[in-house]
Amino acid sequence: MPLVRRLPKFGFKNPFRVVYSVVNLKALDLLKTADTVTPQVLVDAGLVKRKTLPIKILGSGEVGRPIIVQAHKFSRAAMEKIQAAGGRAEVIGGV
Known about the structure:
Shape: elongated
CATH class: Alpha Beta
Number of strands: 6
Distance between the termini: 46 Å
Order of helices and strands: HEHEHEEEHE
């Protein structure tokens, strides 16, 4: 039997893929006490389970107050909504 038929056929796993912990804006709006949202604040609030993964902020929901959000990556909608509310989206390194 030819070698190509003897080998198992499985998909491709990208070794360079980056997996993010995602947080929506509606979850950030529930953090009423924090004016500056950092990855440590998200871990302490229980919104991020794994501390080792980088954080990405997604644009589902609204922000009702100006906040400063520090994360590794932002979606375009999230960045626009944060800036429209008078806040600031800061990209931190480490990915």
